[in-house]
Amino acid sequence: MTRRETSDPLSPTQISQLANAQPQGKRPAYFADPMVEQLYAMTMSMMAELATARERIDTLERLLEKAGVLAAGDIEEFVPDALAGQERQQAQTELCARILRPLQQQVEALEARNERSVAAMADRLSGKEPGSDERA
Amino acid sequence: MKKQRRIDSYDVPPPVTEAQAHGVYPLLNHDERARLNFVAACNRVVTSTLTPGNELAYERQVRPKFIAEHQREPESRHEVRRAMNANPFHQLWSATRRNLMEIRQQTGAAIVLRQIDDLATRAYNFSQEHSGRELDVTLPLPSYVAEVDHHCMPGSYHRELTSGDVSPAANYDIGFYVTTGGTAGPLNDAAGRAIANWVNEVRRASRPDFQPKRILDIGVAAGHSVVPIAQSFPEAEVTALDVSAPMLRYAHARAHSLGVENVRFMQMSGEDLSRFPNDHFDWVQTSFFLHELSARALPAVLRECRRVLKPGGLPLHLEQPQYDNGMPVFEQFMRDWDAYNNSEPFWTAMHAIDLDAALQATGFAQGDLFRARLTATAEPNVDEQMGQDFGREPVWHAYGAWSADEEMAHDA
Q1: Do the Cβ atoms of B95 and A7 come within 8 Å?
Q2: Is the complex ipTM more than 0.90?
Q3: Does any domain span residue B355?
Q4: pTM for the full model?
Q5: Exposure of B400 by Cβ count < 10 A (0-12 exposed, 13-18 middle, 19+ buried)?
Q6: B362 CA to chain A: closest CA distance, Å?
Q7: Which residue range(s) make up the domain with B24?
Q8: How far is CA B164 from CA B140, B168, B248, B259, in A?
Q9: Which of A30, A124, B69, B91 has the fewest CB atoms within 10 Å distance of its CB?
Q10: What is the pLDDT of residues A55-113, one digit of tens each?
Q11: Coil/strand/helix, residue B267
Q12: What is the pLDDT of residues B205-230, one digit of tens each?
């Protein structure tokens, strides 16, 4: 087969940058708050990734069943023993905590454990007047 | 584990593995297929479950508020749009649909870019083994193509990142299947088959003498429509034009890998068909092409279509329905979504022009104008439960003018 001249293959970074690039033209705004816009876009992408991961798990289950590793119903009827049950609930809890991290941090801020800005902390720890660096 | 069952027709969109691969179809790995499946499934949920909420929001919230403020009904799709854009439900629905399109584009681009050289090589090999591909590197890309990233696809139909690039076309092809939920069939070609069937029906009913020798298709893109037409008229010499070299390379390779030999793919603008003499073609057609044209280009293309068409020949333009014949302003607004949210800037103006007058301006007689409603309802993946997907459902209108001795079967 004849091979035409091509440039080098695109690197994974190039592919990622190109595939994630925005199209020409200003993106329409759907929400009053641009932050909500961004958050919603990320949420939709997470939805796509979750759907993709679930389909992969489904593939695994079907392949394992076909290979005779799993019997039909094995997964539905699976009951973890006490230790496994505890480990799994631990994992569930940690996952929820990771995703809800921003809310946890809001609660901490409400508890006034985080009321000073980092810049104000630097001023205090250096013995400077608050905001003196910014005025300089 | 799920029960095994034979699925004859889907009440959910078919997975992308049901699409028919061909000689330049991209390779898809597991997670790429899963992402595409997600796009199709999520689109279906949006269409069937969420889209009807727009009409509810309009009737129960937006319209009463508008009437209270203005003491009259909204009079145009633009008034409806401005009012609906302030409605929280519509905002969320619209954002969801836009994001799905962006995810679809991200997914498709990532798939084709990782195999960009392999795809180009495959298309190149078809070009070495089969004639019928004439690229013109000197053809300037019209600004109404160059400056629009159609359907939110960076680089749109034409970007070339490597020599012999076909990646925009390959991306378009795989994405088409999931955005339409497989309703256009395994080869995305239901529209082309519907056109061929309609012409054959008219031939049987009233025009047995119509035996097209030369057919012209303008804006061929990936060749979804032209291939079934060429298959239905194997004696015809079909000419397929596009301004995009990646589309032509891909369409040429795809057609030949499907065994279709009677199409010549040429890089040419529909605005300038000067390489063809007057009265040259028996049938000149476009499908889903007019809405990609600027207001300046559209009449120029229609004029050239008329010039190269033989007297008594068939001009046919397939589109979503025009905003006329009393189409309610709410439906016009819904059909207009792609114009404002999916980088289809000419969609709104094109669907609002008087297409009959535009055709008459090129010399067709009013009495010869026709409209025909074409559907893909015979497709195995099309069912009544999908809900109306404004602007995307597989129901199209063919617009044209056909002078004849016999009466035409009108069916608008």
Answers
A1: no
A2: no
A3: yes
A4: 0.86
A5: buried
A6: 33
A7: 9-412
A8: 17, 11, 10, 22
A9: B69
A10: 999 999 999 999 999 998 898 888 888 888 888 888 878 877 777 777 677 777 767 66
A11: strand
A12: 999 999 999 999 999 999 999 999 99
